[in-house]
Amino acid sequence: MELLDGTKVANEILDDLKNQVENLKKKGVEACLGIILVGNRKDSESYVRMKKKRCQEVGIINCDVRLPENVTEEELLRHVERMNQNPFVHGMLVQLPLPPHINPERIISKVSIEKDVDGFHPVNFGNLALQRHPEKTMFPCTPEGVIYLLDKYQIPIEGKDVVVVGKSNIVGLPMSLMLMHRGATVTVCHSQTENLKQKTSKGDILIVACGQSEMITSEYVKEGGVVVDVGINSVKDETRKSGYRIVGDVNFEFVEEKCSYLTPVPGGVGPMTIAMLLSHTVKLASSE
Amino acid sequence: MELLDGTKVANEILDDLKNQVENLKKKGVEACLGIILVGNRKDSESYVRMKKKRCQEVGIINCDVRLPENVTEEELLRHVERMNQNPFVHGMLVQLPLPPHINPERIISKVSIEKDVDGFHPVNFGNLALQRHPEKTMFPCTPEGVIYLLDKYQIPIEGKDVVVVGKSNIVGLPMSLMLMHRGATVTVCHSQTENLKQKTSKGDILIVACGQSEMITSEYVKEGGVVVDVGINSVKDETRKSGYRIVGDVNFEFVEEKCSYLTPVPGGVGPMTIAMLLSHTVKLASSE
């Protein structure tokens, strides 16, 4: 089994972005990513911290807005609108999930399409689905990062049988569409799927994004298949200082003997997602 | 095998629409569908003729624009814009395909979202994909008609293995998304799919929209499965007056013994598509 080393591939991308950001600076453009974070969820805080850290490494500046858990939808919308209007912000995102009293769809559809680095705006999504304006469309970062990683390791997609577990709007669904567009025969499985093992074990490529800690064991995997683990789950671990550790949706140890390629967690899809996010920001700054 | 009788189900819908249209008339609203047809393609002319005939039966009036094959994109766009602005037109469509010198994406994205009865506008499509505003979203007529037909015959979708052959923006892709949203485990096959038979024969429901005359024979079908044939192909037939006959993508005779339900062609999905189109028009007229 060969590791799909997301950290290494992401670092190559970040090195390249660093050069691009420096060149932009010479032209007087300071690439800037705006991040709106609502509330105090530990996982969201940790994601935002990581995004900002990588921005800093690459030279992208941040414009942050931190809002309390009980912010009203109207107040949040005002901040989105302010960031839309801010000419110094090239790309922006609202960290998900939002508190239950806020309608995330309403917020996301108010982010300027031209700044939507997450690719969640319905117009960006419609363009992705219909393959319109691929050069201008922002693709959701996680599925784009997965495909980048597969391409980097020269793993063919066209004509292959790909099974995606999970059909979320953020990962499973756009992942399935992007793989279809690349000529894969895609089967989308989810919580209502019957005989899941039987289906996943047919996948030349298996992509798991179901949020179930280590549920994918060797019976779920095709002999010699490629396995991509999108899961990021924290599980209790009293042997660690922090009291927890991060695991994926795939049981690494059970699967590694059987597959040809496998992403580690952490260090697989996660860093690729952030690399795509920064890449979107730099692309938008470059087209200023 | 039981026939999925699209003609019968569509007629029930049309009867109901007829009443709705009459009620609208009493309120002073004349439900109106605008149709723009470019060029002289026989198939397009025939589709438009059928749509207008059904409109007439139901009491929907038409606003037609017929443009020559060599119309410029700008001129066509002016007609689209005029129809967008026309307060008497509730729903509108531009008959596809368009001549090769015209970019269909550009035209479709200029149709007012509020009048887009075909559901092809990227915003409508993005909403479909993301399941946003299902009450307001116009779904593409053919996949919506297929689901209506399955529901009418109380064929369960949730948890079922559904195979869709074809991934066009008009049928295969929206069909797959709508089935996923209904909880089916969907596999999308297409021209690059390997071992097609092996995949299609796993489908509790098999939906074929690949435009290949009668290619689906019994080996492609699961014993006791449901088969929906979206194909409309004209093949030469010198025994007919017209010199041709209409066949689907499924070889009816080869398949009928093996499956539990089957749509005929003609008289299956075709009439359902038109019923959905008219239903969209009446819905828009009712919300005037």
Spatial shape of chain A? globular
CATH fold annotation of the largest domain in chain A: Rossmann fold
Radius of gyration of chain A: 19 Å
Largest sheet of chain A: 6 strands, parallel
Query: Which whole number gives the mean pLDDT of chain A?
Result: 97
In CATH, what is the class of the largest domain in chain A?
A: Alpha Beta
Provide the domain count of chain A: 2
| DSSP E strands of chain A, number | 11
Structure report:
With 288 residues, the first copy, chain A, is of the alpha/beta class. The first copy, chain A, folds into two domains: 10-113, Rossmann fold (3-Layer(aba) Sandwich); 141-268, NAD(P)-binding Rossmann-like Domain (Rossmann fold), CATH 3.40.50. Chain A has ten helices and eleven strands. Chain A has helices spanning 6-26, 42-58, 73-85, 104-108, 122-130, 141-152, 172-181, 196-200, 252-255, 269-286; strands at 2-3, 32-38, 61-67, 91-94, 161-165, 185-189, 205-208, 226-229, 233-236, 244-247, 261-262. In chain A, the strands form three sheets. In chain A, strands 1-11-8-7-5-6 form a six-stranded parallel β-sheet. The first copy, chain A, has a three-stranded parallel β-sheet with strand order 3-2-4, with helices on both faces. A two-stranded antiparallel sheet of chain A has the order 9-10. In chain A, strand 5 (161-165), helix 7 and strand 6 (185-189) form a beta-alpha-beta unit. In chain A, helix 1 packs parallel to helix 10, helix 2 (42-58) packs across helix 10 and helix 6 (141-152) packs across helix 10 (269-286). The mean pLDDT of chain A is 97. Chain A binds chain B through residues 105, 109, 121-127, 129-132, 158-159, 161, 167, 169, 173, 177, 180, 183-190, 192-194, 199, and chain B through 105, 109, 122-127, 129-132, 158-159, 161, 167, 169, 173, 177, 180, 183-190, 192-194, 199. Strand 6 of chain A pairs antiparallel with strand 6 of chain B.
